[in-house]
Amino acid sequence: MDITLLVKLTSKAWSLKILALMHAGTPGRQAPLIAATNASRSAFASSLDHLVQLGLLEKNPGHGHPLRPEFRLTARGVPLAAVAARIIETAPDEAAFSIIRRSWAVPILAVTSKPTRFSIIKSELGSVTDRALSKSLCSLEDLQWLKREIDVSKRAPFPTYLAVNAGSQINQAIHLTT
């Protein structure tokens, strides 16, 4: 999966969950999707609009009310919905899912399939700030989804990061299609 698309996709908290639910067969109407996500209406609406703008969802013509439209996955959205479902399956509880919902967690795990330096992660993710990246790395390390090792073989020691445990499963779920 293209890392730029993954960063855009995960920039809204409920995007992955909505795609996973649509993949699982939840009706594309707002009421069943809101009930299944437990999201607030405003956060849900923002994520839904974001998915439409990315071209992953579209209004289902001839279905639903103009004020309460029904949505369906686009041809571009179908494979990404399968990836989202695999990612969501790796979150065994609410605490793990709350980490997945954060903007940078999934993209970081996507680029750490092998030991990777901070500067490389930052350059691959593009628009991430040092602070956001550092906080995300710490939270993923606390969950034991990311392993930090210090390489002392060079003159200046530096840390590398590697996706492990559930983080490795998320990495594999993302790269299964590529």
UniProtKB/TrEMBL annotation:
It comes from the Bacteria. Keywords: DNA-binding, Plasmid, Transcription, Transcription regulation. Residues 11-88 form the HTH hxlR-type domain. InterPro entries: HTH_HxlR, WH-like_DNA-bd_sf, WH_DNA-bd_sf. This is Winged helix-turn-helix transcriptional regulator. It comes from Roseibium porphyridii.
